């Protein structure tokens, strides 16, 4: 949220009455929490991780019916998260990571909240979409499936490793380089690996082809080169260049511009050129939103990225040869959870925008063409819609849908817009007290320094007079409470 220097507050009024006494803590907190929703690059298959009372499993569904089916059988609360859920391009395999603490400072460190005498591990696993037993690939994180759907690349001890998706051969280290490897991807034809080599205060972008050819470094410089992306034909690369770290000590309390540029490189010639430099202002600094710059190479030779340069996190589009960026999402709102359609002609995102002034405190799905500023609101109303993914046949959108009285559930709708089906409705416990949940109201008030403070007010129905209150204050400004069940696992509590 664009609220400079503000504290977002949640004001909850509590009372002791007949309605409150009818609720049990277990019934309110037993809801499932979905995460890592994903779709295959072909067909209509989707997968999602569900945390149900601490037992974390993967569920799958397939269009057009999209009936949710439990795929794994991890039926104990062992505190082992499931993350990095991926469907192979052909839709036949699901790959995931089990263990660790997704979103923590170091996700590679195993956690052991169950005090198991057996040391837990962070492991890459695969399982057939049709069903079966999970296959342990190796210890590691951040798996990526090859375009041919037969191999997995993943990170282990700072290096890139490879394995067969069905575990038929022993994993091997893909190549050796100095530094720690990250942000890797296969070329569209699956013959090359693009990656970042992090050297602490600087980083390089490299291309690995095979064991007989040297690593090709893309325009190496004393800089931090990050977020590399292939062009759709695999012939060029777009990436972000930031300044290297270092220099004389400076105050951590002074806000300073964090410069960044967009670069395009031609691996065949070895040439790279800067096509855009962010404005040298605080708002023009490198974006700290979900997905960072959200860099994509779209259809029509368009480069898509996110910037705060006008004060909000907005989506921009520009020609890959350079020129002025086109603002696609103009207005006093922000966008996040950005996805590119399989044909690369459309952008899907979640935005706090809509016809109701209270939509500033919600999330709705929007669809935008990559080459013109024409935003279509797909999910108006009072709900919270987030994390959209598009099925490979581009016929459906899957997303997480919540309301003020119902927690997030997996939902699907036609890509062209239309009715929403709650795929995950069957997983909500029957005793969840939907109709007894209070619908919050948006409020705002001025702080002593004149700044506006935005909040949500939860008031019991039919209770008058003075009442005790609980004030919940959380960080910001980019973490916002919403007028409904939150899409973040921590804030959903």
Oligomer kind: single chain
Describe the strand arrangement of the main beta sheet, using strand numbers: 34-35-1-36
Shape: globular
Derived structural class: mainly beta
Largest sheet: 4 strands, mixed
Cα-atom Rg, whole angstroms? 23 Å
Gap between N and C termini: 20 Å
Helix content: under 10%
Average pLDDT, all residues? 92
Hey, roughly how much beta strand do the residues contain?
35-45%
Number of helices: 2
Structure description:
The chain is mainly beta. It is built from two helices and 36 strands. The protein has helices spanning 18-22, 25-29, and strands at residues 8-13, 33-39, 45-52, 55-62, 69-70, 82-87, 93-98, 123-128, 135-139, 141-145, 151-156, 159-164, 172-173, 180-186, 193-198, 203-208, 216-217, 223-230, 237-243, 260-266, 271-277, 296-298, 302-307, 314-319, 326-327, 335-340, 346-351, 364-369, 376-377, 384-390, 396-402, 409-414, 421-422, 441-446, 452-458, 469-474. The protein has a four-stranded mixed sheet with strand order 34-35-1-36, with no helix packed on it. The chain has a four-stranded antiparallel sheet with strand order 2-3-4-5, with no helix packed on it. It has a four-stranded antiparallel sheet with strand order 6-7-8-9, with no helix packed on it. Residues 1-21 have low confidence and may be disordered.
């Amino acid at each position: 949220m664009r609220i400079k220097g503000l504290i977002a507050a949640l004001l909850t009024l509590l009372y002791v009455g007949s309605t409150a006494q009818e609720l049990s803590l277990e019934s309110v907190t037993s809801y499932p929490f979905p995460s890592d929703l994903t779709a295959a690059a072909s067909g209509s298959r989707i997968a999602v991780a569900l945390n149900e009372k601490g037992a974390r499993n993967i569920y799958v569904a397939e269009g057009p019916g999209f009936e949710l089916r439990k795929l794994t059988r991890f039926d104990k609360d062992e505190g082992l998260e499931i993350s990095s859920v991926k469907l192979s391009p052909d839709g036949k395999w699901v790959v995931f990571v089990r263990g660790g603490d997704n979103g923590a400072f170091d996700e590679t460190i195993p956690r052991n909240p169950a005090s198991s005498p057996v040391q837990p591990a962070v492991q890459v696993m695969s399982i057939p979409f049709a069903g079966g037993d999970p296959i342990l690939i190796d210890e590691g994180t951040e798996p990526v499936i090859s375009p041919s759907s037969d191999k997995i690349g993943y990170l282990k001890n700072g290096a890139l490793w490879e394995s067969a998706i069905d575990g038929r051969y022993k994993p091997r280290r893909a190549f050796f380089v100095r530094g720690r490897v990250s942000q890797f991807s296969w070329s569209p034809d699956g013959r090359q690996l693009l990656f970042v080599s992090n050297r602490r205060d600087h980083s390089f972008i490299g291309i690995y082809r095979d064991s007989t050819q040297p690593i090709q470094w893309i325009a190496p410089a004393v800089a931090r080169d990050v977020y590399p992306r292939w062009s759709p034909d695999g012939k060029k690369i777009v990436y972000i260049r930031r300044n290297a770290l270092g220099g004389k000590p400076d105050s951590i309390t002074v806000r300073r511009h964090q410069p960044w540029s967009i670069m395009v490189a031609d691996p065949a010639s070895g040439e790279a050129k800067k096509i855009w430099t962010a404005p040298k202002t605080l708002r023009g600094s490198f974006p700290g939103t979900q997905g960072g710059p959200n860099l994509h190479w779209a259809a029509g030779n368009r480069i898509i990225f996110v910037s705060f340069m006008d004060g909000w996190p907005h989506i921009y589009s520009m020609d890959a040869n350079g020129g002025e960026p086109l603002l696609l999402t103009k207005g006093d709102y922000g966008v996040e959870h950005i996805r590119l359609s399989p044909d690369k002609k459309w952008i899907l995102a979640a935005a706090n925008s809509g016809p109701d002034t209270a939509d500033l405190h919600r999330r709705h799905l929007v669809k935008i063409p990559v080459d013109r500023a024409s935003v279509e609101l797909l999910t108006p109303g009072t709900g919270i819609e987030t994390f959209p993914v598009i099925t490979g046949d581009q016929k459906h959108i899957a997303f997480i849908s919540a309301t003020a009285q119902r927690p997030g559930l997996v939902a699907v709708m036609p890509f062209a817009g239309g009715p929403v089906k709650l795929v995950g409705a069957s997983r909500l416990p029957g005793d969840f007290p939907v109709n007894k949940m209070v619908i919050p109201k948006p409020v705002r008030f001025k702080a002593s320094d004149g700044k506006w403070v935005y909040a949500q007010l939860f008031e019991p129905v039919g209770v008058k007079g003075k009442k005790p209150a609980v004030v919940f204050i959380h960080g910001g400004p980019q973490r916002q409470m919403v007028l409904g069940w939150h899409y973040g696992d921590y804030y959903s509590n």
